[in-house]
Amino acid sequence: MDNKFSSAIHALILISESEEPLTSEKIAGSVGTNASYIRKIIGLLKKNGITESRRGVSGFVLKPKPEDLTLLQIYQAVNKTEHPCLFDLHKNSNDKCIVGYHIKPVLNGMFAELEDAFARALAEKTLADCIRGIRKRLEAET
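-> structure tokens emitted (142 positions)
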């Protein structure tokens, strides 16, 4: 798994909490990456109706309210998939071996259950939950 998902959440929190539209350069400085990577992520989010930019205005704006934006929606947007895929199966198991013959259907079933549970958990969490978590940590520091 790559870091598009966590980078997207990071960027969306910044966009949501900023009083002015943020540029990809400012977001990249906080995420710790380059601006072109942020533009790629924001482009995926924009394609899915999560962010928008305005012609002639520098920066990005969050379209839905943070409490209406689930982590599953963010995951699906940046990973270009409806269903999370957490696990890959090895390709060349030996069908003449008893384990090799049965491993794919067994693991496919187990992996599907785990991925379904992951999707349900992501659907229950929102961007607002992430923002609350940050605020709670900030309050604990003071």
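Helices lie at 4-17, 24-31, 35-47, 71-79, 98-124, 127-141.
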